[in-house]
């Protein structure tokens, strides 16, 4: 925060389709003949189908059109298929312990010759319920027995040169095993979620009441979400303070219109907006009273899926400093007035224009964005965003709450909703465990193991064990900047090396006992390909200190491949309570080990050593904002071997391919202004490693950079106390 080996070639689709059709006809005829010959028997109660629609994971999938979920969707025209290798597995989570009586496998021609049906109570320890080395393919109905929550088919030898392919994987039985109580999905959203419709009395009064509580409560415990049902609301000015989220409950922004404003200003801080953190506006259409809406924010303040029918002013009243910010999936009909904003990132949006550049303004996939002109004016523009998938959001479908999970887009430009109803999946709230203050980590994990998603209501949650997200396609969504604090030095949250997890809308606050990590995406040996269905981390913020002493060695570690980090602020506090070089010690901000990881909107600040370290191949970053730690006591404290200081963003020497656009690092060594930082950025010099639009700046001469990247770029020393960036247009 500034103060001022190779698989065989698959047959053509027509041949594969024809093959499936022949198999289907033969199997259907055979079944019919057998049924006709069967003697009449006394009717028995049929077992219950337990697996349909349940969470399912697999060791691999052949391509995007053959996901594991297709094997439990009840549709015999869709299928799961694996990679062309042995072994492979598909696993279904029944949600609770059940007595298993039967498993039905409906194979596509690519079936298993040898396989096992295995059951487990915990997803880790497996028991063989059935085994064969002479699988016949077609429809195999297997009578099995056991008590389990998880059932999997483990293929050990294929009957063809292709993978394993199932039209359906059905598990039958009865619930009511001894796995303990089933946690309920859905429920009310708690007292700090304020839901309005156009007829609700006293909306403005409630907005004002919460703003009075939250306007200056930078490190307070209050958390609030204002949710507006579809309709039109007149004459409102929703002033948004700390830890406050305002959002519409429609499927599109235009479903909920406010004839008025959603305002952030900086009166509480004497017109300086550089500390307007931790708030959000989403999924609304605005008709600003004056024609322009004011949104003067800094880090960790998202403006998503909005339609401003006018202009947008990003500066506070009086045009004091601001240090934002982030816009995504938004349309602004008029001009965006950047004014005093030092940096900003806008993604997949449409704007009527943009004014002023200050230090670092970056656009990707934005209709109406200024052309690249770095270093003056300091605009960096990508015509499209390489990969994006919008943040999941709560909405109303009639009277039923659902969470919409938008679809992935490639080379996106403009909003996801411009053509009408957006693409994606709706998940009923009944499939979420609604987390409320007082909920333990054990309960959260039980809900996840049961197959539920998590919806955190506004509040502060202490966890004495890691929240383990082990199931593919799990959504963990926070409302009102819900905050997770790990106790006893645990890691707050871990995600398994699975497809499609979505983490969004919450803050992780380090505890007083040092945690080795706060958020881990994938285990150390992660190697699965998630390109078709990546994990996303969106509006997930991490804080060390500020609200009190906190420590963590490394804040965020990304081990999985293909992860998208879409707007995060990872912050070692420079002010507040529990702040000091050792008091809130945190050596590393973000470490990326996975391949093909994309960061869009990366803010990482003030770490004792490296702020960002990148070890994975083919990583990409679009927009990066950094400040080095203010409170380094002297040059020796940041000495890195023979190098003065730790780079703000370092690509490891082992990396062959990496690319980044629009990066800025600032220093404000206010304890010892004589400190010198050799460079802001460190990278191997290789043809596949490229940087575009870089800058470093000394804030008022409080310390200086000798170079921008490696040994390239002018020193900031000649600027003296003038806050003038040193720039590099491209490297190498």
UniProtKB/TrEMBL annotation:
Region (Disordered): 57-77
Record-linked SUPFAM superfamilies: Galactose-binding domain-like
Residue ranges occupied by any F5/8 type C domain in the UniProt entry: 36-174
Protein name per Swiss-Prot or TrEMBL: Coagulation factor 5/8 type domain-containing protein
């Amino acid at each position: 925060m500034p103060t001022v080996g190779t698989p065989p070639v698959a047959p053509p689709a027509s041949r594969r389709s024809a093959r499936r059709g022949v198999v289907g006809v033969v199997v259907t005829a055979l079944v019919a003949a057998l049924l006709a010959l069967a003697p009449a028997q006394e009717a028995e109660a049929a077992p219950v189908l337990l697996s349909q629609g349940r969470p399912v994971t697999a060791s691999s999938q052949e391509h995007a059109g053959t996901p594991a979920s297709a094997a439990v969707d009840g549709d015999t025209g869709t299928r799961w298929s694996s990679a062309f290798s042995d072994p492979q597995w598909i696993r279904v989570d029944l949600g609770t312990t059940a007595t298993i009586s039967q498993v039905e496998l409906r194979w596509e021609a690519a079936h298993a010759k040898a396989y096992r049906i295995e059951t487990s109570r915990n997803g880790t320890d497996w028991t063989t319920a059935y085994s064969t080395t002479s699988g016949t393919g077609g429809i195999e109905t297997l009578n099995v027995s056991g008590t389990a929550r998880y059932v999997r088919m483990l293929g050990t030898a294929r009957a063809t040169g292709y993978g394993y392919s199932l039209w359906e994987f059905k598990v039958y039985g009865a619930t009511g095993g001894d796995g303990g109580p089933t946690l309920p999905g859905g429920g009310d959203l708690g007292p700090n979620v304020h839901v309005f419709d156009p007829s609700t009395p006293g909306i403005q009064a409630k907005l004002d009441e919460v703003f009075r509580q939250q306007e200056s409560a930078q490190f307070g415990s209050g958390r609030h979400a204002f949710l507006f049902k579809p309709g039109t609301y007149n004459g409102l000015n929703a002033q948004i303070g700390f830890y406050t989220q305002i959002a519409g409950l429609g499927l599109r922004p235009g479903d909920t219109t406010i004839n008025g404003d959603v305002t952030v200003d900086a009166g509480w801080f004497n017109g300086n907006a550089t500390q307007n953190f931790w708030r959000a506006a989403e999924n609304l259409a605005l008709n600003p009273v004056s024609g322009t809406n004011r949104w003067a924010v800094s880090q960790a303040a998202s403006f998503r899926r909005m339609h401003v029918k006018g202009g947008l002013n990003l500066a506070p009243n009086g045009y004091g400093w601001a240090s934002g910010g982030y816009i995504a999936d938004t349309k602004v009909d008029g001009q965006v007035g950047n004014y005093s904003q030092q940096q900003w990132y806008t993604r997949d949006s449409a704007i009527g224009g943009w004014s002023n550049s200050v230090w670092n303004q970056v656009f990707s996939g934005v209709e109406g964005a200024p052309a690249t002109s770095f270093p003056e004016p300091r605009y960096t523009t990508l015509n499209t965003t390489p990969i994006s998938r919008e943040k999941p959001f709560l909405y109303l479908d009639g009277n039923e709450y659902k969470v919409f999970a938008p679809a992935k887009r490639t080379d996106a430009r403009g909003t996801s909703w411009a053509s009408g109803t957006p693409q994606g999946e709706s998940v009923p709230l009944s499939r979420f465990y609604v987390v409320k203050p007082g909920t333990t980590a054990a309960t959260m994990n039980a809900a996840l193991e049961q197959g539920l998603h998590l919806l955190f209501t506004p509040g502060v949650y202490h966890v004495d064990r890691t929240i383990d997200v082990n199931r593919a396609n799990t959504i963990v969504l926070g409302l009102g900047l819900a905050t997770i604090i790990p106790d006893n030095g645990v890691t707050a949250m871990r995600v398994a090396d699975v497809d499609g997890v979505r983490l969004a809308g919450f803050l992780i606050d380090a505890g007083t006992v040092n945690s080795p990590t706060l958020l881990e995406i994938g285990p150390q040996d992660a190697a699965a390909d998630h390109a078709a269905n990546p994990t996303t981390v969106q509006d997930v913020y991490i804080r060390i200190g500020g609200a009190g002493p906190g420590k963590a060695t490394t804040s965020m570690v990304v081990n999985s491949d293909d992860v998208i980090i879409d707007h995060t602020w990872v912050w070692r506090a420079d002010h507040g309570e529990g702040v000091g070089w050792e008091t809130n010690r945190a050596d590393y901000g973000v470490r990326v080990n996975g391949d093909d990881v994309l960061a869009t909107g990366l803010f990482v600040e003030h770490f004792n050593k490296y702020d960002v370290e990148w070890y994975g191949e083919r990583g990409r970053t679009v927009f990066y904002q950094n400040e080095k730690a203010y409170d380094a006591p002297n040059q020796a404290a940041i000495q890195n071997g023979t190098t003065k200081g730790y780079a703000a963003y370092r690509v490891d020497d082992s990396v062959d391919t990496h690319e980044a656009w629009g990066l800025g690092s600032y220093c404000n060594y206010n304890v010892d202004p004589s400190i010198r930082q050799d460079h802001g950025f460190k990278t191997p010099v290789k043809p596949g490693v490229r940087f575009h639009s870089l800058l470093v700046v000394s804030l008022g001469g409080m310390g200086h950079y000798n170079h921008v990247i490696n040994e390239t770029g002018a020193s900031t020393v000649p600027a003296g106390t003038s806050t003038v960036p040193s720039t590099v247009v491209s490297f190498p």
